[in-house]
Amino acid sequence: MRLYTHPACLQHDPGPGHPESPARLRAVLDALDHDSFAALDRVEAPRASRLQLLRTHTLEHVARILEARPDENGLRLDEDTVMSPGSAEAALRAAGAVVAAVDAVMTGACERAFCAVRPPGHHATADTAMGFCLFNSVAVAAAHAIAEHRLKRVAIVDFDVHHGNGTQDIFAREPKVLYVSSHQAPLYPGTGDAIETGVGNIVNAPLPPDTRSQEFRQIWDGLLLPRLHDFRPQLVLISAGFDAHRLDPLAQLQLETEDYAWLTDRLMHLADAHAHGRLVSSLEGGYDLAALAAASAAHVRELMA
Ligand SMILES: [Zn+2]
Fold it and tell me: Which of 6, 123, 163, 274 is catalytic?
């Protein structure tokens, strides 16, 4: 089990008071800096290449991010998405981590990997940074798995409390990808209705505010996991946001830390059943530092089992 991260991911700073702060990644890394995680194989994330980014993003978008020269006041891309001088490098390492993790599981260097990176990615579309996201790291990695490893079925599982509109948009016409998401609705970004099905490769489970563990688990066991098993993925990618936790300040779902361990175990079984165990998870949201630390540690602890 590998852990991919890079110090550059701490240098992306959207400014004081912004919920997507460097302290988030510090909280995750501190939680994993414990004897019980000593067996993690820690790997420094490489940068994603332009070629890798261009499988998912437009030339204009990649150039806009990589050629931006934000000063210390930040460069505001939209209402919530701000670049600091370290942001482009952080985004390159975040996407590069997930790509490298895919290579590692595909070549058998490890069975599973977690990417402790930021900025998050699942709101970024082919041509637009939004919702704290610059490059869609998991989408870049899925496209890499299809192009480089010739996979025909890649599952992207998104349990972040927000809908991954960017990932859905990027793959809505790509039957080699199955995108499966549970998320709160109504909530930012407003997409993710159950009637959004792409070419039969998008499965959305919008959940009302105050949804608790039992209903959450029922939706996964009754709807989302069966669809994933029917797809028989050759690789399981996870957009691992921990903001559906009951303590999270940005949303109103009521998950407990144990729910993340429960779903992680189910997803490992999915990967074991169809994908020779190959599973790569990447950090998305999670804005209560204590809940983020506990839930991400529970997730990684399961992945190490
Ligand atoms: Zn989120």
Answer: 123
